[in-house]
Amino acid sequence: MKNVLLASTSTLYGGQYLGYLQNEIRDLFNNIKELLFIPYARPSGISCEAYTFKVKSFFNMLDIDVAGLENFDDPLAALQEAQAVFTGGGNTFLLVKTMYEFNLFPALKARIEQGMPYLGASAGSNIAGINMKTTNDMPIVYPPSFNCMGIVPFNINPHYLDPDPRIQHNGETRETRIKEFLTQNDTPVIGLREGSWLRLLHGDIKLEGFHSCRVFEKHNIPYELEPGVLPFK
To answer: How far is it between the farthest Cα atoms of the chain?
Structure first.
């Protein structure tokens, strides 16, 4: 039984790191004393060690210890023994490439399907989808495959932005790019807005948070789904 929280972002504008998710994270990691942090998507200019320290600072307030995966000689063994896992945001290409280098995807997927609590934010949510082809990130490295875990039966587009008619912008909108994806792929895409997250529990996939999500499907007009159980299994 999956126990998963997939957030669009780790930090809302003007807020503290993971602050808006604090109550939900307490619920997700109830009775967890230590979690394993996967820092491989590390944002620009931040080392894995500095990223782990930032995560520790938040989880210490919840009385949860954090072990950074970068500190283990055998990352696969550490993952197989973890009580819970958090994968942070950053660059999805870098994250996926490193996950493949250490052969971590099969083990992480198996642990999640066995019920291990998992938290993903941004890139960490992207890898729960079928593949990473709808990420917003630039391909700064080349992973051996774009395929991810398929924990949810669709792709996620974190940080989804609606077109702003006040901005005189002639480039592609987020919706345009996702529609381009669907000309070549059959995978549904969930546009997950800031302040929203997906919760997998008791066999359901629920949209929670402050906004509706935008759903893109091949041959269908994009549509909105309000917070609640999503029609995906």
So the answer is: 52
